[in-house]
Amino acid sequence: MALELYLDLFSQPCRSVYIFAKKNNISFDFKKLSLLDGQQYGEDFGKISLIRKVPALRDGDFCLAESVAIMLYLAEKFKTPDFWYPADLRQRARVNEYLSWQHTAIRMHGSKIFWLRVRSPSLICVGAVRLVMSYLSSLPFIGLLAQRESCSEPLSAWRDRVQEAVGKELFDEAHQYILGAQESVKSMDSSKMQVYKPKILRLFM
Amino acid sequence: MFLPDVVSEKSISGPCRAKCSIQYSKEFGDISIVRKVPVMKDGGFILTESTAILEYLTQKYSGSVADHWFPADLQQRARVNEYFSWQHMNLRAHCSKVFLLRVRVPIVMDAEIPKETMDFALENVKQSLNLLEEKFLQSKPFILGDKISVADVVAVVEIIQPIGTGFDGFEGRPKLIAWRDRVKKELGEKLFEEAHEALMKSSNMPQKLKNSSSFAQLKPILQKLFR
């Protein structure tokens, strides 16, 4: 059985895993899951992951959740080039440090901005801030999605370097859905979002 | 577990301690701009984030740290990483929130916690504990299986966090109680008690915080965090 990756490319950690696997020519079955349609709550997906989040991996009998764990698993199993997750003690520690910190930092705040500005259009955006609609994926490869006019120069330069290292085609392919999010929400069936309303009210209001 | 050269109160100068809380001092900021604990200083190498520190220590001292703490096996290691990743925004976040809502937030924000807010926080803890039991532990003695690992240590300390405030996450969960007792036995009761001694005195933390000489400086910083 081929390795399976359950992904919705609207999700930041899914894009990390997708980009990492593709860049390293790791072949996998792309199992598309639509979070908007609530497919993560289906009975079949529950057998893959009780956590009911994406990304998820199935490798034979072995199922794994959490994008960080999945990428590190792939890096080790497929012996990707050392720079992705260095064997050197201190270098590896630096990557682990970032991977740990980002959960409650950039990832959390970026997601919040995304929800406020795209998924909850009736809500007023948080204050006059220079925050960008951004996300960070993991490993030494980091992708930054930013509204160019509000992204600082050092971050822009870094983003461009990452894009170049990954390859523009793969980078754009992974981001095509999310970049169109603000437009696509206009044609979105709002009844599908109602299931998220209680959570949004508690988390953001 | 031993952390070499961990930043301690003793390493911060006396006058600064009188003026401001230690993690906001200049000295600590020179060590870690993130201003959180734990921080590890190993010679010239400074590292933050507990899970990164744990992995660093197991890798550096691999000659003396038994493999079961952080196994080299591909799938076992993936399970540790999976737990480490999940717990940030789940068990850790939810237990911490209950702890903070009970001992910090009312003092800092000068307001009672609405019942709805506390109920929501408690419901989140319940969901996380359910997943710990059903997904991570299942019917195994420890998260990885027969032997204790760093995942068990990282998990157990979070559930204990709000106990001193009157919320016991183990209550009514015999599976978790049995697991906790196994973890305690593996670590040694003395070490376990020693690590949690300060926390168990947290019931008087609100008063202590209010009376602290650095509260006036701390209050606006904490209000921003809790808004």
From TrEMBL, chain A:
One of its GO terms (cellular component) is cytoplasm. It comes from the Eukaryota. It is found in: Cytoplasm. Keywords: Cytoplasm, Transferase. The keyword Mitochondrion does not apply. PROSITE patterns: GST_NTER (PS50404). Homodimer. This is Glutathione S-transferase theta 1b.
UniProtKB/TrEMBL annotation, chain B:
One of its GO terms (molecular function) is glutathione transferase activity. Its EC number is 2.5.1.18. It comes from Neolamprologus brichardi. GO terms for biological process: glutathione metabolic process. Residues 73-207 form the GST C-terminal domain. Pfam families: GST_C, GST_N_3. Its main location: cytoplasm. Homodimer. InterPro entries: Glutathione-S-Trfase_C-like, Glutathione-S-Trfase_C_sf, Glutathione_S-Trfase, Glutathione_S-Trfase_N, GST_C, GST_C_Theta, GST_Theta, Thioredoxin-like_sf. One of its GO terms (cellular component) is cytoplasm. It is found in: Cytoplasm. It comes from the Eukaryota. Keywords: Cytoplasm, Transferase. Belongs to the GST superfamily. Theta family. SUPFAM superfamilies: GST C-terminal domain-like, Thioredoxin-like. It is an enzyme of class 2 (transferase). Residues 1-65 form the GST N-terminal domain. This is glutathione transferase. It catalyses: RX + glutathione = an S-substituted glutathione + a halide anion + H(+).
